[in-house]
Amino acid sequence: MAVRDDYEDGKAYNNAVAEEFRANEGKVGGDWEGRRIMILTTTGAKSGQPHETPLGFSWDGDRMVLSAANGGAPKHPDWYLNLLASPEVTVELGTEKYQATAVDSEGEEYDRLVVARSESNPAFVRNQSRTTRRIPLVWLDRIG
Description:
alpha+beta; Pnp Oxidase, Chain A; seven-stranded antiparallel beta sheet; 28% strand
């Protein structure tokens, strides 16, 4: 069971969560217990290497939506910067693994998603209140 405070670096924590996720058909304990979770694999913007990140998500119809909140930190999370550079990603959801394309929401669609996210996820409102940056909301469109 991965708990963030037990790890000195984020990469080791992410690896432990991903390992537990795969060993338990998409179910994890610790910090993620009871939450909907997926593993997003992006290509490093600088390194070109794969990076796995466990993330919570929501659905907008049949499209998966990710919030690049980074806990309300002043900068975007690395996974978001990676997908801006290379929007082709791998999604692991339960026991399923597939390719997707990341699309940044904009304009009226972004505004609609913010309202939906704010109503269903108090953490989104809290994270937005912690930062002056606009928290990106990203769709993942399944390929094929």
